């Protein structure tokens, strides 16, 4: 069960990216998981939804694309031009 | 909607620390091996026998990971080499930062080999680079032959598979040739050595593998020094 840690790392990457684009809010983050990465897709989705729900990032969708290798990579973030999170809120998001 | 590409590893922070470790271990010429296997596969017993049989000229050190207790470190410390326990307090794997922290204060210069015994688990440790030269997967004959098919990630990433506890073969239905076949289906180049920490069977082959890898590492350091 290391998917909780992985979900936190994904959110941490989103947080860092948002600092570069303060005019946006993140709507979706896409990751690429190799079939040999040792990461369970359903478990990751569950953990991600659980930690996003009560965070300033909500609602934020997790997109998962599967691949054939052993990679565990971030692919892209879809930013919404609409409502913007304040940077303060984002920084206050406590991430392990 | 604006799409921003973020091509990086999800575990990029772990990868950064692991690269730092790798570079330190390259400077000191220390071979680092990350042992991964289920709880009860015999990882600690395997390392105990290894430490007992190591040539006196070899400088070795061990980091051993568990959720709780110092029991494994106590077992491994009996052989006169430096050993440290990493208790993860619940985490199912070691990460590069834990290894970095527990190496603090150890002089890596002159250290030939660092054995890292990961938390007993065939899944999660697979994702975390610890800056090692190679992952070694330990599978015991008290388990199922189809472990390589059920947990392909680690069998694909490991360079060496230790088929452990072969002294039990007369008493269990385990078919070693089937386990080899499954492992090679997942990873055709994987090396396989059958061992028993109780009888010492297979340890001559394992120690010769280890010696070759330590020499290769030392040679790569010499080449690097010449290049610089």
Task: Give an account of the 3D structure.
The complex is a heterodimer of chains A (96) and B (228). By secondary structure, chain A is α+β, with helices and mostly antiparallel strands. Chain A has a single domain (3-92), classed as hypothetical protein PF0899 fold (2-Layer Sandwich), CATH 3.30.2320.50. Chain A has three helices and three strands; from the N terminus they run H-E-H-E-E-H. Chain A starts with a helix and ends with a helix. Chain B has one domain (13-214): 3-Layer(aba) Sandwich (Rossmann fold), CATH 3.40.50.300. Chain B is 39% helix and 21% strand. Chain B has a seven-stranded parallel β-sheet with strand order 4-3-5-2-6-7-8, with helices on both faces. In chain B, strand 7, helix 7 and strand 8 (191-194) form a beta-alpha-beta unit. In chain B, helix 1 runs parallel beside helix 4. Classes of the chains: A alpha+beta (96), B alpha/beta (228). Strand 3 (72-80) of chain A pairs antiparallel with strand 1 of chain B, so a sheet runs across the interface.
Broad CATH class of chain B: Alpha Beta
User: What CATH architecture of chain B do you see?
Assistant: 3-Layer(aba) Sandwich
Envelope shape of chain B: globular
Q: What portion of residues of chain A is helical?
A: 25-40%
Walk across the major sheet of chain B and give the strand order. Answer: 4-3-5-2-6-7-8
| Integer tally of domains of chain A | 1
Number of strands of chain A: 3
Radius of gyration of chain A: 13 Å
Look at the structure and give the CATH class of chain A: Alpha Beta
